[in-house]
Amino acid sequence: QVQLVESGGGLVQAGGSLRLSCAVSLRTFSSCAMGWFRQAPGKERELVAAISRSGISTYYVDSVKGRFTISRDNAKNTAYLQMNSLKPEDTAGYYCAAKAVVTASYKVYQGPDEYDYWGQGTQVTVSS
After folding, report:
1. 81-112: pLDDT as tens digits
2. Which sign does the torsion angle of CA 59, 95, 21, 88 carry?
3. How far is CA 38 from CA 26, 34, 87, 94, 106, in A?
């Protein structure tokens, strides 16, 4: 059974930084495109950032551009989300997701329905 385990969330003051990690128990991790989603109470889940299986292509939602960076380490089967200059509106549960990809090593995926596997989430709270 595939497991995605997020870590690195917590409470931080506005302007601070956190780095989220997503460890994936999948031997073919390098064949997966990855995404980080977030969901705040009463709001829909939204894609924050995505990275292709090759790592060549990335996507960011406008509200985090220039502040967040998605990356991956295929040797460690881990994806990361570096979050800088955090704002109170970044407060949410953050979830990583993986999509098995046979081809298209450059493609990123934006829809939650496109992903095959999900983690349980880690809470990020930014105080003002």
Report:
1. 999 999 999 999 999 999 999 887 899 999 99
2. positive
3. 22, 14, 14, 4, 23
- Torsional sign, CA 76, 86, 17, 69: positive
> Residue for token digits 């970044």?
90
Q: What is the pLDDT, as a whole number, of residue 40? A: 95
Q: Would you call 57 exposed, middle or buried from its count of C-beta atoms within 10 A (0-12, 13-18, 19+)? A: middle
Which of 19, 18, 23, 20 has the alpha carbon at shortest distance from 5? 23
The whole-number pLDDT of residue 2 equals 85
Q: How far apart are CA 128 and CA 126, in angstroms?
A: 7
Phi, psi of 72 (to 5 degrees): -150, 150
Alpha helices in 1-124 (DSSP H): none
pLDDT in tens, 37-67: 999 999 999 999 999 999 999 999 999 999 9
Residues whose CB is less than 8 angstroms from the CB of residue 101 and which lie 6 or more positions away in sequence, other chains included: 31, 32, 33, 52, 53, 107
